Amino acid sequence: MQDFAESFAIAFTLVVQLDPDLMEIVGLSLKVSLSAVAVSALIGLPLGAALGMARFPGRSVFIVLVNALMGMPPVVVGLLVYLMLSNAGPFGWMRLLYSPGAMIIAQTILITPIIAALTRDIVERLHEEYADYFRSLGVSSAGCLGALLWDARYSLLTVGLAGFGRAIAEVGAVMIVGGNIDHLTRVMTTAIALETSKGDLALALALGVILLALALTVNASVMLLRGTAVRTAYA
Amino acid sequence: MTYTVRKPLRLIAVTALAGFITAASWASIVAADDDSIILQSTTSTLNSGLYDFLLPEFTAKTGITVNVVAVGTGQAIKNAVNGDGDVLLVHAKPAEEKFVADGFGVERFDVMYNDFIVVGLPSDPAGLREAKTATDALTRIAKADALFASRGDNSGTHKKEMSLWKSAGIDPTTASGEWYRETGSGMGATLNAAVGMGAYTMTDRATWISFKNKGDYIIVLEGDDALFNQYGITLVNPQKHPHVNVKAGQAFIDWILSDEGQAKIAAYTLDGQQLFFPNAGTK
Lengths: 235, 283
Prior knowledge:
The complex is a heterodimer.
Chain A: H1 2-16, H2 20-53, H3 59-69, H4 74-85, H5 100-137, H6 141-151, H7 153-169, H8 172-178, H9 188-197, H10 201-234
Helix pairs in contact in A: 1-10, 2-5, 2-6, 2-7, 3-5, 4-5, 4-8, 5-7, 5-8, 7-10, 9-10
Chain B: H1 6-24, E1 36-41, H2 43-47, H3 50-62, E2 65-70, H4 73-81, E3 87-90, H5 93-101, E4 105-120, H6 134-144, E5 148-150, H7 156-168, E6 180-182, H8 187-197, E7 200-204, H9 205-210, E8 218-221, E9 228-236, H10 246-257, H11 259-267, E10 269-270, E11 273-274, E12 277-278
Parallel strand pairs in B: 1-2, 1-3, 5-6, 5-7
Antiparallel strand pairs in B: 3-9, 4-7, 4-8, 4-9, 4-12, 10-11
């Protein structure tokens, strides 16, 4: 199809020319989604690890709940955050709606369950292995939690990437809470939606190609860092 | 074993650093200042490129940034009712007047107009090109069971379409899912869908002219007075929502209604065609 060839040509031209609008949109996409991953990690890693280690009544119900939240539709998250941050909503006074901050909040809510659920799974297995050892050393719960997270750090990188992938790819949430405002809240996915609605399918697909390349770059960088870190650790 | 007490501490330090970086960039993350307004707008004005043409000049003159949130008229009004915007620029006069009457808007002004058209396949299966009026055209579509893609999203265009069906004495929603296809999405998405399935659809002329995925579609109905499309502007009422940026919002309204703003609207063309016709002050 001619559209595909045209799209790749457009994508190539935009990237080679370092199109300033494109750079701004790419920059904001990265800023929003990486911030969301960072905040989600702060919440999701300890939460997931605690859930993996602790034994309490109703634990399995809680795990099922967190796992189910991985399937939350972005548009629903966007709607919830909109209702919270709207000036008619309880947090309207924060004046966050239609700002990158609102987009980070929405994506954080979207991916925290992913980080927590996958962390829980990884830490639970590790904990089964080390539980007796920790007990013999008399390590505190917080100490165990930190040690397990540290030991699982390379697997947890993949968890972070899963969260990043979900965040950078979603359009439903950021569209509602960000508003796709030019030079303020426009990211790759909302730009793609806009160009599609203008009927400029070639440009929309070109942006899609660039978004894929972006995800590829982030994943490759993390894997490279991980490779270096592993070599250093065992050298 | 490689465990030491220090390693968890390092983990915490790294996470804290990540959090700190996030917090540091937070300053540039929060929006809204004195020199910016949020314009709740319909999509046609954005998609057609009108704002790209108008707003830089306004910003250069006043230093006020206009942040455009382009959604369907129905959603734009809803957002404005919630106070999530300073100015409303949409195209559904009755709904806008209700917005003002309910106390959410200060006063509504006519800004500009263009018209709605019906587009379809060149083969024109329902014979719309022979139709004299919009109601005649819609009657032909219903009689022929010809595919028609409706916005179905409570937008200005959708409200207009429903009023035309009403004056034709037809309730198309009884055929919903059959020949009447409600996409429930924006104008662009509905045009993409219509072109994809060979359906007729109604669109504002500005969106159509700027739309790039026309396929072999042509205009099959235009020119009826009933297809008039009026755009209006309203300041969100600061008595309902005290945070409304009255000064900057009013400055924008004053400018767009001024001779200068109106001339600028008239000067915007695409492919040699004027997309919007200013008519401020003609009540």
